[in-house]
Amino acid sequence: MVRLLVTGGAGFIGANFVAYVLQSHSEVEITILDKLTYAGNRNSIAKLLGSRVKLVVGDICDGPLVAKLVCQTDMIVHFAAESHNDNSLSNPWPFIQTNIVGTYTLIQAATKYHKRFHHISTDEVYGDLPLPGNDVKFTTTSPYQPSSPYSASKASSDMLVRAWIRSFGLQATISNCSNNYGPYQYIEKFIPRQITNILSGRRPKLYGSGNNVRDWIHVNDHSVAIWDILTKGRIGETYLIGANGEMSNKAVLEMILRLMGKSQDAYDIVKDRPGHDLRYAIDATKLRDDLGWQPRYTDFQSGLQATINWYSDHQDWWQADKNKVEASYARKNQ
Ligand code: NAD
Ligand code: TDX
User: Fold this and answer.
1) pLDDT tens digits for 39-55?
2) CA-121 nearest atom, ligand 2
3) CB 197 within 8 Å of CB 142
4) Which residues are known to be catalytic?
5) Which ligand is the nearest neighbour of the Cα of 191?
6) Domain range for residue 54?
7) Do 15 and 46 belong to one domain?
8) Nearest CA to ligand 1 atom 15
9) Count of Cβ atoms closer than 10 Å to residue 9 Cβ
10) Residue 314 sits in a domain of what CATH number?
11) Tens of pLDDT along 197-243?
12) Does residue 81 share a domain with residue 127?
């Protein structure tokens, strides 16, 4: 058996990744290390726990705990992070602590015990692009220009991993992915917030003009890409993950409204996010050409419909936090 340590495995992408590995790779045993912050949810992984998947509730900044778990594993996939831009604008400190100090703690242990490490990062480290029309996209050579405390903390963690590869021989790869959607995404994020607003009788909320563009990828396509990089990627390399899913926020919201049987203008325009990145777009040629990865969820509308159905069918998963999340947005006029 191959032993895999997954940090942040009770969060959105981590939980989907664990489910994918459990189902598709029978030779793998998984230990999830997760602090179960507001964004981590035991119910996202409850059905997965058993002989091949166990959960350790703990902090990636806890050096002795991390050293013990890293020593006992073969490979590490590092998802754990504070992940929401809006929260990083209200209180950056947890982002510095978890995203930078936590990553440092993990790579120290992975170096010491000579373990394979894969670092999950984001396209946001590259800042933003002009609106479509000139076809420019992020590549692995794009300059780092993070805009928010969140993206700056992720950029910092990428830099630490790169330095540990070069200076200490850490056996690591990095991936920078675009915006994910799918089941188990916390309801603070754009798509699940709007779906659950409609399901709970609230109006969706669009920041500013709604012209900002995000490059959407289904979380299951992200999971397969991570597995491919972990098992076939070249040590020291960075891979960009994206599925050519560019859409404006306004267009995504109008699609949600239409699929949920509402009028296309049944939403509120609210205060824009300070420093709001205009556009993200990924050039994933390297991942496709070198590792043969390709996305399977290429029909965004049907992926979105399935996601709407999931939130509709799993109200017990999100209902308890809905009032709290909306009250917090309301305090910021969002
Ligand atoms: P999430 O917020 O849904 O989940 C994060 C998980 O990490 C939670 O389970 C939380 O409890 C855990 N965690 C937080 N702090 C911790 C700590 N100190 N110790 C241990 N566990 C801790 O995030 P997500 O959307 O699943 O993102 C996962 C990773 O993917 C992050 O590194 C994020 O930067 C990256 N990413 C996300 C997206 C996206 O669209 N969501 C896109 C690209 C990259
Ligand atoms: O209510 C909203 N209305 C709105 O218009 C919310 C919550 C967001 N937005 C806009 C802001 C963004 O342009 O929608 C877009 C998507 O917002 P988020 O879901 O907050 O995602 P984003 O800021 O793009 O970052 C996401 O993708 C990259 C993830 O949260 C990050 O973890 C990942 O690194």
Assistant:
1) 999 999 999 999 999 99
2) 34
3) no
4) 123-124, 150
5) 2
6) 2-181+216-241
7) yes
8) 81
9) 30
10) 3.90.25.10
11) 999 999 999 999 999 999 999 999 999 999 999 999 999 999 999 99
12) yes
